[in-house]
UniProtKB/TrEMBL annotation:
It is found in: Cytoplasm. InterPro entries: aa-tRNA-synt_IIb (IPR002314), aa-tRNA-synth_II (IPR006195), aa-tRNA-synth_II/BPL/LPL (IPR045864), Ser-tRNA-ligase_type_1 (IPR002317), Ser-tRNA-synth_1_N (IPR015866), SerRS_1_N_sf (IPR042103), tRNA-bd_arm (IPR010978). This is Serine--tRNA ligase. It catalyses: tRNA(Sec) + L-serine + ATP = L-seryl-tRNA(Sec) + AMP + diphosphate + H(+); tRNA(Ser) + L-serine + ATP = L-seryl-tRNA(Ser) + AMP + diphosphate + H(+). ATP binds at R268, R269, E270. The keyword Ribonucleoprotein does not apply. Belongs to the class-II aminoacyl-tRNA synthetase family. Type-1 seryl-tRNA synthetase subfamily. The record marks T390 as: Important for serine binding. The keyword Oxidoreductase does not apply. Its EC number is 6.1.1.11.
Amino acid sequence: MLDIKFIRQNIEIVKKAIQNKNIDLDLDKLLAADERKRHVMTELEQLRSEQNKKSKGPQSPENIEESRGLKEKIKLLEKELEIVDKEFNDLALKVPNIPSEDTPVGKDESENKVLRQVGKITQFNFKPKEHWELGQELDVIDMERAAKVSGARFAYRKGAIPLLELAVINYTFSVLTNEDTLKKIGKKAKLDISSKPFRPIFPPVMIKPEVFQKMDRLEPKEERYHIPSDDIYLIGSAEHTIGSMHMDETLKEEEMPVRYIGFSTAFRREAGSYGKDVKGLIRMHQFDKLEIESFTLPENSQKEQDFIVAIIEHMVQDLGLPYQVLIMCTGDMGKQDARHIDIEIWMPGQNKYRETHTSDLMTDFQARRLNTKVKRVSGESQYVHMNDATAFALSRIVVAIMENYQTEKGTIKIPKVLQKYTGFKEIK
RNA sequence: GGAGGCGUCGCAUAGUGGUCUAGUGCGCUCGCUUGGAAAGCGAGUAUACCGCAAGGUAUCGAGCGUUCGAAUCGCUCCGCCUCCGCCA
């Protein structure tokens, strides 16, 4: 959500963001609702003030009679306020975050901009296989039995794959919790930034509807798993329960940035992606993910995102995988995003780059409704800025490793940095 | 799942229908005092919204209700604690 005061004072900027992000919203309607709401509020406050004055001390019968009249008027106005407020809220929720200056304006994904490509595309002197073929042949991925037991888009990962995933988890935690490593990454990226380590978090995987809404992640609801008996949702990312953990809290400037590296299972209905990526681990109803979440001072949030992207690139390079970095255009970025950066790793079996990481700079868009603030040394309170990003989506990084590290014999080498965690060098 | 208790200003507590515009203590900030500090004394010390301001309104876990008037009474929900049951 944007600050309504900001909206009032920057109507043209907000209108442009609405247009560039292809959002169906008439801002003038919101402004009208805002004015009506304030008008009703003022009137209501005057009445309440009168009521408060009248209800002090012992009451005469005439006084009580007058107060009764006031009570009726207040009731009516409260009803009216409720209606106006709902209208205002419904419209205000649709207002998108303002894209950063370096975000390209564009209609759809075709206008996303490749910022850089790193690493040489993996070359083979044989025809590389797709990961599900390899998985089946090596008996480490079993989609058929998963379909029998749970349905489409589920998998049993077996044998070496769970060990590989655990290795990625351990490796990621070792990078993100090591201050020296972070310092080096920041220096290499020429960022003047704190090297404070990320704190490991295993968050809950279920979330209350109202908190989900405050994260602005409940919609589209068709994408979410809902458990009606308890009116609770399964998270689609650890972001959902880590980003909200400081709801209604005021952090101290001295403890900023507050950085987390979370791990959780993510649940997605994948509504509307019928027929897309039906084979293999690319698009699953359930997958495990390492997620970065960071709370910063407003002036540091953009740099924080640059740092997070640098960390991800460092890790992808460590794994020896070729990738490209994209900045998403206005038409393809999320409503909540100020800047949205994706990393796509080359998948030889599919012969293309596939999205493996997403980094979202939210500025104060989520913090405003979550009511997460920071008390500055000056004494002033401000909403914190938030960043979230994929550290690794385990299933997709497994795909990338399998396809890039396959051999002609149909075995899969383990990237060097992971070998000390897996305890083996090859899946065969 | 059952029974009971509890949720008040950063923390601890007082408050059982109007005097609560929420008291007190601790903590914190500033000042006085001091060579400096402690103690002591004095002042200040939640957030949001509206307003140029004076000021007003809301918030005592959340919501709904009773009442002329609710921190206080009733209902629902959430959370915490104790005991029992069950369970990994």
